[in-house]
Amino acid sequence: MHLTVSSRYGAALAGVGAGVVLLMAGCGGTGTQASSPAPPPTTTSPTPVPSPSPSPSSSPSATPSSSPAPKVTKAADGRKLSACRDLRCEVEVKGGDTIRFAAKYDLQAFHVQQIAKQTLYFATADSEGSGMSGYVGGSGSVSTADAHIEITPLGSKRMILKIRPR
After folding, report:
1. In the chain, N or C terminus with fewer CB closer than 10 Å?
2. How far apart are CA 88 and CA 162, in angstroms?
């Protein structure tokens, strides 16, 4: 079973079955990976350019804002967990919820064991009768052989899961 986990605050996983144990922990990551490397820093000093004096007839210019992205407050499929059978959904989950997937997928179920302090504790089941368990603190993602699951906190006891096929 292929597994990838990323989390803003860290994650840990333990594989079950066939004596496989996976453990991954990380801190400080954002759960995203850049698609291309950043350009190297330049070593030359920029030449100062004098700024023109504002005139009363000039219009104000837009200034980029460093405000955070809008917070997700509602899942597209609400609490309809059955919308996930095809590995395409965005649902709100709470502790005790189980999302079941169509039999044609290796990933058979994703069980939300509990959500506490914006940490989601989960277990999965696959078609081979094994699975994995772990947790994701804050925003992050879990990837299995079939699915990529993005996790977004929605209060202290609820999360939004956005599930897509891999």
Report:
1. C
2. 8
